[in-house]
What does this fold into?
Amino acid sequence: MSVHSASTPAAATRASVSLPRLRDMVARGEKVTMLTAYDATFARIIDDAGVDVLLVGDSLGNVIQGETSTLPVTLEHMAYHTQCVRQGRRSAWLVADMPFGSYEASPQQALASAVALMRAGAQMVKLEGAGPMVETVRFLVERGIPVCAHIGLTPQRVHALGGFRVQGRDDAAAAILKAEAAALAEAGADMIVLELVPSALARDITLAHPRMITIGIGAGAGTAGQVLVMHDLLGITSGKRPRFVRDFTRVAGTEADAPGLSIAQAVQAYVAAVKDGSFPDETQHGY
Ligand SMILES: Nc1nc(=O)c2c([nH]1)NC[C@@H]1CN(c3ccc(C(=O)N[C@@H](CCC(=O)O)C(=O)O)cc3)CN21
Ligand SMILES: CC(C)C(=O)C(=O)O
Ligand SMILES: [Mg+2]
It folds into this structure.
């Protein structure tokens, strides 16, 4: 037994999270919790706190590397952090982001990059966009690689989108996002992140595709699950923090300088709040 074994009994006995288990959860109406992790120590804490899905996000460009976007992150960086997270993982499902420039050129390029991340320990890869990426998703899925899609605000396209702005606000833009979600579901994406889109649109996409697990961030409470960046949840992100973020180390109703929760307690509070529907809160976190 490693020193990591001092955990809650519930965490120690949790069966491995798999795609069928995630689908069962969604079918039962239980919300799916996803949180980013970039190293073994935090992966273990987050897994033991009961988070269902660990995401090795390319947001590590921001929170680990100190960059202002995810664009400088390479496949080698992602593989390294995926290896670190796999060491700490106990039973959560492990998803890794395909970084900018590692999959857009062709389905073949995407396959080679996905293989590198799966070898590093990922169980599913995530890639941003639709359009030409729909056939790339199909190509990977047909070759046995589970795929999480990602539409709405796709941070790797920040310069093309003109900033980190809410997507799908008007009817025409909402219709495009709905068509993208439908195409990605048809191509076989088992999961999809909906980032920074109006709550009603995210709810509609979720209801339209019961087989594809929708994970929201700044997308309201109507998705099948939620994701946050770990540093945002812990209130330790430097610089501006998006409106959809809650600092879970703060105990609601206490003054700002009151003692905070431990990291494990804060992650447990996130899991509890997503599962009981109290996070996200439409008025505070919705668009
Ligand atoms: N720490 C961190 N948290 C994240 O959620 C995150 C990253 N980094 N890096 C990669 C992307 C970038 N993301 C971002 C970045 C900025 C906003 C933002 O500034 N949103 C504003 C404006 C929304 C509007 O158009 O009204 C907001 O207040 O939410 C949102 C998502 C989400 N991801
Ligand atoms: C915010 C999530 C969805 C992400 O893609 C990341 O952490 O890179
Ligand atoms: Mg990402």
